């Protein structure tokens, strides 16, 4: 796909951006050549080896085929940190940072609080909370052992001490209780046409949709809300990320389970993205 004449970083960038987005092309060249943006500007004649050229050509082909850039680079930014990502985990989204911010607000007055991250994936939520609250006792659960391996690497990468457990939602927790539960579960309805676009076919479907044919995407959220009281200390918080049109239904689920202080919070686009509530202090 790329011309063999493009054997320096400047020409490679020019050639790659004829095929993919300009920024994507730049980042792929920097990744392959282990160079910085400044090098592309000040030293564009820096040579690419034949192996580097072949690697870049392969990555450009994959990006042109729709594979997410984060998988090609092997990392993605989230809440000021870089997270390792593989096709075994969902790529962390900026809107999920709201879930972390809401958790951190509630943990300010609870040094040494116990925190549970359900469906941790690459560990973005758990590790971000642990990084900002090093005294917190963080537990992260995921059904996928491969995802947990990535999350554990990210915890080590950012010097966060966390416990990682494999299992289906609350199953591996026994009688453990927490001051705060955060969850970013699969919430896209099975068969939603959005799953066919924007690189989503490359991401793990079990992290995107509950797989319930004809469902509303809330099957996992119902399980999380229904089981939360048994794993929260009195007064503990449950915070759940959900779809753009699911806030009212999630609030209804929380009210039905007798949560107090039920609310929804908007992301930077003004979309109600996280809903949550508090387990009553008594009962």
From TrEMBL:
E.C. numbers: 2.1.1.297
Pfam families: MTS, PrmC_N
SUPFAM superfamilies given in the database record: S-adenosyl-L-methionine-dependent methyltransferases
Residues reported to bind S-adenosyl-L-methionine: 119-123, 142, 169, 184
Domain (Release factor glutamine methyltransferase N-terminal): residue spans on this chain: 21-74
Residue ranges of domain Methyltransferase small in the record: 102-192
Positions annotated to bind substrate: 184-187
PROSITE patterns xref list: N6_MTASE
Keywords carried by this UniProt record: Methyltransferase, S-adenosyl-L-methionine, Transferase
GO biological process, one term: methylation
Top-level EC class as recorded in UniProt: transferase
GO MF annotation, one: peptide chain release factor N(5)-glutamine methyltransferase activity
Family under the similarity heading: Belongs to the protein N5-glutamine methyltransferase family. PrmC subfamily.
Main function: Methylates the class 1 translation termination release factors RF1/PrfA and RF2/PrfB on the glutamine residue of the universally conserved GGQ motif.
Protein name (record): Release factor glutamine methyltransferase
Gene that encodes the chain: prmC
């Amino acid at each position: 796909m790329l011309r063999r004449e493009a054997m320096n970083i400047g020409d490679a960038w020019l050639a790659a951006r004829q095929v993919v987005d300009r920024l994507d092309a730049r980042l792929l060249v920097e990744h392959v050549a282990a160079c910085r943006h400044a090098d592309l500007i000040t030293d564009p004649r820096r040579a690419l080896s034949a192996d580097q050229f072949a690697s870049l050509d392969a990555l450009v082909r994959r990006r042109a085929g729709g594979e997410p850039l984060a998988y090609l680079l092997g990392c993605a930014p989230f809440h000021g940190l870089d997270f390792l990502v593989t096709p075994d985990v969902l790529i962390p989204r900026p809107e999920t940072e709201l879930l972390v911010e809401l958790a951190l607000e509630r943990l300010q007055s609870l040094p040494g609080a116990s925190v549970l991250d359900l469906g941790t994936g690459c560990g973005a939520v758990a590790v971000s909370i642990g990084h900002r609250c090093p005294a917190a006792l963080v537990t992260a659960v995921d059904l996928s052992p491969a995802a947990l391996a990535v999350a554990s690497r990210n915890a080590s990468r950012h010097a966060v001490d966390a416990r990682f457990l494999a299992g289906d939602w609350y199953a591996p927790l026994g009688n453990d209780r927490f001051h705060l539960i955060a969850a970013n579960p699969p919430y896209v309805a099975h068969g939603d046409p959005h799953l066919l676009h924007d690189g989503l076919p490359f991401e793990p479907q079990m992290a995107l949709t509950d797989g319930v044919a004809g469902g509303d995407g809330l099957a996992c959220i119902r399980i999380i809300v229904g089981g939360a009281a048994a794993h929260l200390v009195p007064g503990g918080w449950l915070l759940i990320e959900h779809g753009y049109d699911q806030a009212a239904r999630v609030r209804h689920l929380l009210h039905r389970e007798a949560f107090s202080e039920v609310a929804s919070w908007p992301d930077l686009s003004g979309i109600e993205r996280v809903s949550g509530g508090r387990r009553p202090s008594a009962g």
